[in-house]
């Protein structure tokens, strides 16, 4: 059985979509803030791998290229 990380994180963080009810939306805003903080940390971690794209070691280069490709794709989507 494969763990779906997205589902796990969203269960831990809680819903983020506002629903138009002040108290609930305040909770969801806090959930959104925590989720954004996590994503920021994850993006930082992935960015740390990018310089490996220039390594001669195949496994390190593969990881670096994957990370660089992720950021290139991400910029194309924003």
Describe the structure in your own words:
This protein is mostly helical and 78 residues long. The chain has 3 helices and no strands. The chain starts with a helix and ends with a helix. The mean pLDDT is 94.
Keywords:
single chain; mainly alpha; elongated
Number of domains: 1
Low-pLDDT runs of 5+ residues are none
What series of H and E elements makes up the topology?
Answer: HHH
**Distance, first to last CA:** 33 Å
Q: Mind telling me the C-alpha Rg?
A: 17 Å
Number of helices: 3
Query: On the 0-100 scale, what is the average pLDDT?
Result: 94
Helix fraction bin: over 70%
Q: Give a short account of the largest sheet.
A: none
Report the strand count.
Answer: 0
Tell me the overall shape: elongated
Please state the structural category.
mainly alpha
Roughly what fraction of the amino acids lie in strands? under 5%
In short:
It contains three helices and no strands.
Write the layout of secondary structure elements.
Elements: H1 5-13, H2 22-49, H3 58-77
């Amino acid at each position: 059985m494969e763990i779906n990380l997205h589902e796990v994180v969203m269960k831990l963080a809680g819903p983020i979509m506002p629903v138009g009810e002040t108290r609930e939306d305040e909770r969801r805003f806090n959930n959104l803030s925590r989720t954004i903080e996590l994503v920021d940390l994850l993006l930082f971690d992935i960015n740390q791998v990018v310089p490996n794209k220039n390594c001669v070691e195949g496994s390190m280069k593969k990881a670096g290229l994957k990370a660089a490709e992720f950021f290139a794709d991400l910029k194309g989507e924003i």
